[in-house]
Amino acid sequence: MSHYCDLAPGHPFHGPYHDHEYGFPVTDDRTLFERLVLEINQAGLSWLTVLKKREAFRAAFEDFDIDRVAGYGEAERARLLADAGIIRNRLKVDAAIHNAGVVQALQAEHGSLRAWLDHHHPLPHADWIKRFKRTFRFTGPEITGEFLMSTGYLPGAHREDCPVQARILLARPPWVQT
């Protein structure tokens, strides 16, 4: 079975993501929200499709400004569903808007989305799935797992012998600190 560490290096889209983002700890809520939206949009599609559309997603969701996205109404929803640059799936668009409001509530209660994640870390993968399903829309086992792995809350983003893994360990993601 191929691993992302075998496929990504040198690829114009996968390579930079693999080498500089995937598995590294994320400290800001905007980036966490972006990753959540991108993981939700990957469902049923390839990660390459999402990476190729990433800049269009950033433009469409106003650089993943949580407050702005949480305030989207019907006009913005219609704009997103008409935007050929992104994945035009009503359930995914609705989930992004709804989840922005959830992030706002988590920020109000915990100070940040990151603080909410830290508050619940470490949890076994199955417990993370239950928590995400209760908290967010459109988050099943794969979306939750990839989100947590990509942001440093779960191990497994890279093979142990991948050169990027050593840099991730130096960055001390949450899963290393437990």
* Poorly predicted regions: none
The largest sheet is: none
How many β-strand stretches? 0
Q: What structural class is derived from the secondary structure elements?
A: mainly alpha
Q: Alpha-carbon distance between the termini?
A: 29 Å
- What is the class in the CATH system? Mainly Alpha
Strand content: under 5%
How many helix segments?
12
- CATH homologous superfamily name? Hypothetical protein, domain 2
CATH topology call: Endonuclease III, domain 1
What is the count of distinct domains? 1
At CATH's second level, what is the architecture? Orthogonal Bundle
Order of helix and strand elements from N to C terminus:
HHHHHHHHHHHH
Shape: globular
Mean model confidence by pLDDT: 97
**Rounded radius of gyration (Å):** 16 Å
What fraction, in percent, of the residue positions are helical?
55-70%
Pfam families: Adenine_glyco (PF03352)
Keywords: Metal-binding, Zinc
GO biological process, one term: base-excision repair
Organism: Halomonas daqiaonensis
